Amino acid sequence: IPFLKTCSLLQRDDIEKAKLTGDWKEIYDFYSKTFDSFPEINTAFKKYTETSFNSFEDCGIDAKYVNAVYDTLPQAPQDIQKCVLKGIINGLLHEWKGPQTKDDLRAYFVLLQNPLFSNTTTYVIFAHLLRQIAALPEDDHRYLIHWLKKMSQKRIKQIIDRIIQFISLRLFPAKPEDLPPMEKCTWWIPSATKVLSLFNASNSLGNPFIPYTDFYNSTLDHIDLMEDYHNWQCYGNSHRFSFCQYPFIISIAAKKVIIQKDSEQQMINIARQSLVDKVSRRQRPDMNMLFLNVKVRRMHLVSDSLDELTRKRADLKKKLKVTFVGEAGLDMGGLTKEWFLLLIRQIFQPDYGMFTYHKDSHCHWFSSLNCDNYSEFRLVGALMGLAVYNSITLDIRFPLCCYKKLLSPPIVPCDLNTPVGIGNVTIDDLCRVMPELAHGLNELLSYEGNVEEDFYSTFQVFQEEFGVIKCYDLKPGGDKIPVTNENRKEYVQLYVDFLLNKSIYKQFAAFYYGFHSVCASYALMLLRPEEVEILVCGSPELDMHALQKHTQYDGYQKTDLTIRNFWEVVLEFPLELQKKLLHFATGSDRVPVGGMGDLSFKISKSEASTNWLPIAHTCFNQLCLPPYKTKKELKQKLTIGISNAEGFGLE
Fold first, then answer.
1. CA angle 186, 189, 194 (to 5 degrees)
2. Backbone phi and psi for residue 468, each to the nearest 5 degrees, phi listed first
3. Which end of the chain has fewer CB atoms at under 10 Å, N or C?
4. Is the CB of residue 379 less than 8 Å from the CB of residue 344?
5. Pairing relation of β-strands 355-358 and 363-366?
6. Cα–Cα distance between 504 and 371 in angstroms, integer?
7. pLDDT value at position 96?
8. Cβ neighbour number for residue 485 with a 10 Å cutoff
9. What is the CA radius of gyration of the chain?
10. How far apart are CA 351 and CA 629, in angstroms?
């Protein structure tokens, strides 16, 4: 056989030669023999057949050779592809009772990469392969997880997409007659999802090589996941399959629907109970009892809000309605958004002392200064919870580790003495808050000289509190323990833990309990920290074409010259100006989870002179635009307007 394991170029030449001559016999013999059995797969692809390769670090497979063989396979005639599939069937039938050696596991690893499984005609075989891999012992799964980490991003992405497509087409087959009836293969989707979870676990080892969003299966957005969610609530991670057992596959849009419906159900249950209580006491029902009615004075916004939410703690899961005392008007959503905007802006002012704004990282962090009352931190947590609960996007800039801590744990422990909000933080988390300090600590870790003599540091840190320098030991007797080359990693980890966990524990615990007082739900267990951030703050991904498509007009038609000029200007804007426009008009430069369509963005015709700049009503996501005569004038006025109206949270 002219196929040489060391020369993939020759293999491609042989394919081209076979195409020209029509003689495929040698290539047929190669593929037929290679995939005839699991031992033959190892003979063909194992780097050294006499070596066992029983380690996480090296699967022993010649990856380049596997890629070369698989890259040429789709170009081969159908009879060669069929002989490969026949060999795989024989191998799977022989190995049905489970692999006996790591060589068998290697064969599964190689077969999983087969590109022929992209075709629905091979799905029955692919399903059995996935079933056998899913049924492997946990120890074998650990090996696969580490071996997958060694694959190239391109190859592993191809397999992930292949498995996601397999699940999608099993749910919604393009040609149902091509696949067995669903009732006869109920194990297909659970097996595929479990195998996909191995890829997700591999991706979570160290630095992710695939964005977590690449594991989303958007097909699930189109099925009713609430039944799946309720089954998961009832049965947990038992043998009964549910997609909620594998939340990495559920998109943030689908998770938002689950959270919203779960929230709505909780709202209905709370409101119904209030109604029943009223009737049982022979009191006249009042429609206001169905809502969380917050009445505040503008001049006492924080204190009134704190009093209202504390006093009405039992109503936090009801639909929110806000009234500003002394002002007429029904809350149709605008007053609620205004309340959030004003309250957040006031609380996060540096002078307020609750949060510190870090210019280098453009984010806020909790002040470590001790205070007598942490109730206002609980208020901020409750505000974030209410925003998620009521689908309001907030202009808050917390680093990712804040949301990681919010999910630590995702369900409030019954024992109030159990620590909460203690995240597994790293120096990378610190870098997102205090990049300069993180850089200094990284330099300490990489310093090649004598750390003890040159840095002269101990396991002690110093902080200024109200003009007084206070010192804290990072571990018992820390002031007497020098930082050395040997213990500097421990020092850095303890320092990071002190800054992001211990020094702000009381503040964050209050914040944590405030958030969960509103959002307590098993649905939170489905979320990644990044997804909580998106639910609270929206997505940073802007699609101005989508915004144009969903924009409503008042006084204008979309064909009017001013509107046509407006969109030409906006679509030509650089990303930073597009963000400023969005912030100017809506109070946030981020997009709700549902996309631009959920913004309800409106452009209204302003009767003001064209000498005036545009104005915005952020509470209603409304831009008031004078009828500028030219594109140049519109661009100039719009740019000035959005560039000189920077609000909270932007520098």
1. 125
2. -115, 130
3. C
4. no
5. antiparallel
6. 11
7. 67
8. 14
9. 30
10. 44
